[in-house]
Amino acid sequence: MKKSLIAMAAAITVTGIGVNSVSAATYEVQEGDSLWSISHNEGTTVDHLKELNNLSSDIILPNQTLALDAQGAEEIYKVEAGDSLWDISRTYNVTIKQLKEWNELDGDTIHPGQELHIQVNNKVVENNQPQQKESKAVPAQSQKVEQTKAEPVQTDNEPAGKEMTVTATAYTASCNGCSGVTATGIDLKKKPDQKVIAVDPKVIPLGSKVHVEGYGTAVAGDTGGAIKGNKIDIFMPAKADATKFGVRSVKIKVLD
């Protein structure tokens, strides 16, 4: 794995918050690499890599140089009561693994008042103002305009679709006696980069495209005896990653 760090010499200060420059990393694609394997090794996501490198597809070529992080800044976040690493990672669009590495955390436990270092890219810190954790204010278009019902806004990261919260587990095709072929005929051993989830067909029709929080857009291509109701099982190529995923609640959108 070839990785080079490009150091930034500048440091900027945001009112009320110290912000330090952060190095940006690049990765040189090797034979046999995929966006999934690179994102997995580097603690990021396929969608983030595609956005950073302006990729319209998952195709990459040997010797191609990929940016792993945009040049940006470091923000200090003070933990509040009720916070978790999962909540904070979603707020700043980073991974739990990154939060733990940046702050040398051995476990997932954090405490109110604890200060966490968060590396944010230039999209987060704009016009020398830090990104707010949550904003509920809606700018008024006109004081005399009749109030109307707000329509949901679709973004690239949040495609439109039927939303629900489900209980998610993870599985792998790398097990004794596993054929690796899903209920819809997808051979996961031959296509380990395929994003597939197992669903209850009564809740999510087989063949549907489903956007899974933290995983990306997958196809509902498999079923399971324990997958009933609002439950999904997420395919991961590596057994260790599937085991580490455990059981958690995630938000999904059924796109079609």
Automatic annotation (TrEMBL):
Stretches the record annotates as Disordered: 128-157
Record keyword Metal-binding present: no
Occurrences of domain LysM (ranges): 25-68, 75-118
Database matches in SMART domains: LysM
Signal as UniProt keyword: yes
Keyword annotations from UniProtKB, A to Z: Signal
SUPFAM superfamilies membership: Barwin-like endoglucanases (SSF50685), LysM domain (SSF54106)
Signal peptide: 1-24
Transmembrane portions of the chain: none
A Pfam match: 3D
Matches recorded under PANTHER family: CELL WALL-BINDING PROTEIN YOCH
Protein name stated in the entry: Cell wall-binding protein YocH
Biological source species: Lederbergia ruris
Primary gene name: yocH
